[in-house]
Amino acid sequence: MSNILKTFKRIPFVSGKLLKKVKSSNRKKVVLTWSRSSTIVPMMIGNVIAVYNGNRHIPVFVTDRMIGHKFGEFSSTRTFKNHKV
User: Fold this and answer.
1) Where are the beta strands (DSSP E) in the chain?
2) What's the total number of domains in the chain?
3) Which of 36, 61, 62 has the alpha carbon at shortest distance from 51?
4) 11: pLDDT confidence band, cut at 50, 70 and 90?
5) With 0-12 CB in 10 A as exposed, 13-18 as middle and 19+ as buried, what is 71?
6) Is residue 54 part of a domain?
7) Is 35 part of any domain?
8) Does any domain span residue 40?
9) Which NCBIfam families match (predicted)?
10) pTM for the predicted model, two decimal places
11) Residues 6+ away with beta carbon under 8 Å from 10
């Protein structure tokens, strides 16, 4: 039970640069970020944030169901090649 309480008390990490970009941009502008470990917060809803996956930026439209998740969950870093049959 104590582990659950720890996770609720933990402050979510959000990059300061990313917060500044989201506050200053209007909703039509795509915000680029390299911070895959940043947590999605309610002020980002409705924005398009392009998350870097190591090769290119993947645009992510932030909805209310994404709050609390990390940006890295929405931009895959690995490509799957089919297994030979």
Assistant:
1) 31-33, 48-52, 57-61
2) 1
3) 36
4) confident
5) buried
6) yes
7) yes
8) yes
9) rpsS_bact (TIGR01050)
10) 0.79
11) none
In the chain, the largest separation of any two C-alpha atoms, in whole Å, equals 52
Q: What is the CATH number of the domain that holds 18?
A: 3.30.860.10
CA pseudo-torsion sign 44, 45, 47, 50: positive
The answer to whether residue 85 is domain-embedded is: no
Q: Which domain holds residue 56?
A: 13-74
Closest to 74 measured CA to CA, from 45, 44, 40: 40
Q: Which residue has the tokens 């911070």?
A: 35
- What is the sign of the dihedral through the CA atoms of 21, 49, 69 and 15? negative
* Residue pLDDT, tens place only, 18-74: 999 999 988 889 999 999 999 999 999 999 999 999 999 999 999 999 999 999 999
